[in-house]
Amino acid sequence: MQQFGIIAGSLIIVISFNLFLIPHQVLSGGLSGISMILGMVTPINTGVANLLLNLPLLIIGYIKLGKKFIIYSIFSVLIISIGLYVIPVFPIANDKILSSIFGGALTGLGVGIVFRCSGSTGGFDIIGMIVSRYMDFPIGVLLSGMNAVVIVISGFLFSWDAALNTLVAIFVTGKVVDTIYTEHAKLTLMIITNNGEKMREHLLSNLYRGLTILDGMGGYSKDNKNVLFTVISRYELNEVKTLITEVDPCAFVNITETIEVMGLFHRRTP
């Protein structure tokens, strides 16, 4: 089911790029936008450029991040790159603003679906995951800065109208991704399980976050339970959900939005 979701999400992104954004010189954010620029101003196909630009990040991600996540990300990048190479660039609509809005929404839909299937579309998403794992840096600021570079390049190479349309597309993409996946950069998890010690070991061995463990009792069953609290970044959500299920598929997990974190967000390494 996850593989099907990644295929569907990736193809939606391809349709958005080749039928709505690229025909009007409107760019997407991140490495995809840079790939589009290369496809427009050089003989290199956008799909080929996307694959070449993502390759180093995918290798680094394979080393630094979970293998399942990177394998799914490689799968998505390959589908997007092949799709951009095979599907011809053809404008569905003539209005640039409408194409920017609809193309941005489709891109956000595709990216959100891939995220929910425990993968990513490569590029700055992998950078965001790596940075969020090792330092408490405002990822939104980092990604916005990178996208700003794409917008400025678009303005100088094409026109400032194209740059503003690119800004609209990136903004809409972000809003749709937030709606489908999760809006807040940090999330608090409360995990209630009968396998507290095993859950603790499994999470600590695979995450760069600390845990707080409380003793609890089932209100109906009166069974002794462990309650584990942790705060994670949005990029780790699917990985953590998978880790929890591997230990206790019946664990009760409450995920809440976290506005701010004070104190040590990262577990100290020996």
Q: How would you describe this structure to a colleague?
A:
By secondary structure, the chain is α+β, with helices and mostly antiparallel strands. The longest helix is centred in the middle third of the chain and has 21 residues, at 96-116. It folds into 2 domains: 2-180, no CATH class; 186-258, Alpha-Beta Plaits (2-Layer Sandwich), CATH 3.30.70.120. The chain has a 4-stranded antiparallel β-sheet, with helices on one face. The chain has helices spanning 2-21, 30-41, 46-64, 67-86, 96-116, 124-134, 139-157, 160-180, 196-206, 237-247; strands at residues 186-193, 212-217, 224-233, 252-258. A hairpin with a 6-residue loop joins strand 2 (212-217) and strand 3. It is built from 10 helices and 4 strands, in the order H-H-H-H-H-H-H-H-E-H-E-E-H-E.
Distance between the termini: 39 Å
Strand numbers in spatial order across the main sheet: 2-3-1-4
**What is the ordering of alpha helices and beta strands?**
HHHHHHHHEHEEHE
Number of domains: 2
Q: Runs with pLDDT <50, length 5+?
A: none
Specify the overall morphology.
elongated
Number of helices: 10
Query: What integer value in Å does the Rg equal?
Result: 20 Å
- Multimeric status of the protein: single chain
Q: Percent of residues in helical segments?
A: 55-70%
Q: How many β-strand runs?
A: 4
Helix and strand content put the structural class at: alpha+beta
Percent of residues in beta strands: 5-15%
Characterize the largest beta sheet: strand count, sense, and whether it forms a barrel.
Answer: 4 strands, antiparallel
Mean pLDDT: 84
